[in-house]
Amino acid sequence: MVYGSEEIERGSVYLNNVGVSSHKQCYKNCSMAHTNTREQHQSLYLEVTSSTNEDAAFPLHTSISLFLLSYCDCKCFKVHLVTAKPAASSLSLRGHIPPSLDICDIQPGNLPVLVKGCRLPAVLDETGRYCRAGLAVVLRHIINRTMEIDPSRKDVLALLGFKKTCLKACAEVSQWTRLCELGIPSAVEEHLQNPADPSLHLPSTILYLEKRLGEPVKVHNDDKIRRQKLQQQKQQQKKKESQPLEDQENLPDSDSRSEGGMELRTALAKLSVDAVPPPATRESSEIRRVKTAELPPLERVFAEGLYFTLTDVVLLPCIYQYLCSLQMLSPGTLSEVPLLLRWYGCVQAVPGVLTAATACGMRLPMDLHAPQTHGPPSPSSTPAPEAVTGVTLTDLVEQDGMEGGTTTAAVPQAHFIGGPRPTMTKLKDHGIEAVFSIHPNPDWTLAWNDLPAAVNPTEGKMSDVRAIRKRQQLNNLVAMVMELVRTGQTVVDFCSGGGHVGIVLAHTLPDCQVILIENKEESLVRAKSRSAELGLTNIGFIQANLDYFTGPFDIGVALHACGVATDMVVGHCIQAGASFVVSPCCYGFIQNTVKFSFPRSKRFQESLSYKEHMILCRFADQTAVQLPLERQIIGKQCMGLVDLDRSWAAEAYGYSVQVMTMVPESCSPKNNMLVGRPRENAPAR
After folding, report:
1. Per residue in 261-289, pLDDT tens?
2. In sequence order, which residues have a C-beta less than 8 Å from that of residue 188 and are 6 or more positions away?
């Protein structure tokens, strides 16, 4: 369902069925198809699946997108329901679609090429050349478009949270984004597919969310709110003491969590469009003298803390369907998630939520029953995920640091006594030393003085010295791509940033198609602007996490992809059977993830432990020109060993890989370059 095996399989089928020679024609057709619609709304593509009885159904990421459109009252998108049975989908799902939306059906084979190469949901702009894909990216874009049309919707803007960063970090690096965008929707859909399976009644992701909802929150002005809460508690206590003894027992507890108290009122006041700021009042001197550490903590009202955000929008359709299932099949399980039920009630109190939910076929509120709780649950009242599912919280949320959950900053210095020399010596004893191939075209260079200004990196916001080094880096990558590329092929610039590599390639290779993939909107918009200035017609832009791109391509490039991003790019190229030219960066950020473990190759795994490999990675980052020459040399050797491990891992999949140094070496402290191409008769990937 949500980014699951079916979608991955669909992407693989697409890779196999779409020939390389058809790429260019597809882009031409895509461009022509949108020539007459540039004045119309942007197109939003949402997936429709088939339920167990072959009826049309919405996967959760589609339900979430429709709920946000309803909540924002956003009508600025043409919504396309992607289904293999277009005649029946709109009719059978009519009760789950907000009536204000402009809806039509489209079959997967008729999708524009950029959309076809991405996992849904996806938004294609009016030009047909800029695609946003992935749940978090699409939802944030819906909010931004709503604000462009109606800047008065402060309640919609508030969904982006403090500093507008809610779900902005990509799922590859953010545990929280990954949990909300992938973990919880996938777990709920797995439960809905097998509702009678007791092992799926309390998914580990739900238990993690329950635990998170019990944690106190901190906001940038929490001192003031906490003092107001303390004053309210004291007033309630005085009121309680003034009552007869027999009446005191009937008064609500001042710290009861059942209704949210001060926190919920503060959150709802912020959302109210017509709210009048309260008059400035000072707390009593008694309250002002209380130390900050002694103030009562703020209870977590919503998923990210005190305020209703985009995260709550994502969770509501998931939790609604999950609770509906539990209420019907296992009502006793509800007692295990009291804080989730409390959150569910708080969300319904948000203005506009009930109306939006009703338009999407969600019948809120539900009559849920759970044991009464007084105060926060004890640590033992919430079962550990491993006790229910055998999955630990560390397994649930991809480790964000070293082995055992230790971050880089927390690694004891004792691990690094002696520097990398003992590790390098150990590798040498196993016959492993850094080896660099000779650069095949060290003198190759682009004619920079003859290129349009928008192609030159000097147009970007960088110093002249840095711009010269950037041109030298581009010379190296483009030279190697020229060795590999053939007419009509597709080149993908992963982690493209402002488009320095992709734009040069699109201008230099007019008979090829170039796709820029980047998850930072600001960078990709800047690249799109430069492309428009040049009038390039063989270029497309995808704002998405790398994993959400599933389209076919022939060559993948990445300049200074940070940490494990290099491994993700190489892995993506291997999966697609594409050649690659990558320049790694930020070796010190390399760490084990759900998808990758280090060392990567069998020979390195037989020679080094994870921690020993991490020593190489940390010292591979010590190549800056400000360091002593001896340390720079050792750093370069460590870079070579880390990239040798990467190259051998790729060779295990039938690739021929060279590790070489950019010329001149001074173009960057991170001047390694891996060039890989698939051999004939390579093993299955």
Report:
1. 655 555 555 555 444 445 455 556 666 66
2. 60, 203, 206, 318, 319, 321, 322
